[in-house]
Amino acid sequence: MNGYRHNKYNFEGKVVIVTGSAEGIGYSIAKGFYQHGAMVVIADIQKERGLKAASSLGDRACFVECDIVDVNSVDNLVNETIARFGKLDIMINNAGINTTASHERVPFYEYPESTWEKLIKVDLTGTFNCCKRSCVELLKQGNGGVIINVASVAGVVALRLQIGFVAAKAAIIRMTEAMAIELAGSQIRVNCISPGSTLTQATEKLFYSEDGSFSKDAERLLSFIPAGRPGLSEEIASAVMYLSSDEASYINGHNLVVDGGWTSGFNRDF
């Protein structure tokens, strides 16, 4: 399946930063913008993979190493973008983390304080840092712009044993709404994307066994999804490009859930 199917999108002349785009959903977003004519900045803490990702796109892409928790690093990201391309039009805040270790997937009353602080610092504060700095640049330019924050279905419906991730992603959604109403008068639209279970290189082993069939864990997970399959990173990218395009010019402060129907309550039979 090819997720890049909306040829009407035209981002020629637009400059886009995508954080956390050395791989996974972020890379698919960056690739989608690039294929639709944009100049793209791959921003990631992973230098080697980031350089490779930018090189794989072409001469309208570059890599800037960035730790979104560090405000100086975020400043440098925006400054490097302006130095390279002369402006900024679209900021995609995709970078974030979640817990994977078993000792961090525990009930909230056993949840390590260090894990809570890490998730809030990276996912919420890091996203805020990028929104703030990019907004300052967009306001200075005076031509409007777009900011898209990537949250999660975990911010829409509560998930067990992931209290830090759930809290951070829910806060991103509300933060997006607050930013939207403050910036609408400056023609800066701020929206949010909440992906469901999405197939990436990192999650492929979770979903598929060696014989190509769904794994047992995946079957249980997919039982919650009416579509009966995980989403593709290109499908998340298509949603991001839609909200960034002129086709979505009257959409602001919205959280677009891209989850195959998961949060519709399909798993509840009462």
Write the layout of secondary structure elements.
Blueprint: E1 15-19, H1 24-35, E2 39-44, H2 47-57, E3 61-65, H3 71-85, E4 90-93, H4 113-141, E5 145-150, H5 163-183, E6 188-195, E7 198-199, H6 204-207, H7 216-222, E8 231-232, H8 233-244, E9 255-258
Parallel strand pairs: 1-2, 1-4, 2-3, 4-5, 5-6, 6-9, 7-8
Helix pairs in contact: 1-8, 3-4, 4-5
Explain what the structure shows:
The chain is an alpha/beta fold. The protein contains eight helices and nine strands. The protein is globular, with a radius of gyration of 18 Å. The two termini are 34 Å apart.
Mean pLDDT: 91
Low-confidence stretches: none
Biggest sheet features: 7 strands, parallel
β-strand amount: 15-25%
- Cα distance, first to last residue? 34 Å
- Which percent range fits the helix content? 40-55%
Shape: globular
Helix/sheet category: alpha/beta
Count of alpha and pi helical runs: 8
Physical arrangement of strands within the biggest beta sheet: 3-2-1-4-5-6-9
**Total DSSP E strands:** 9
User: Rounded to an integer, what's the Rg over CA atoms?
Assistant: 18 Å
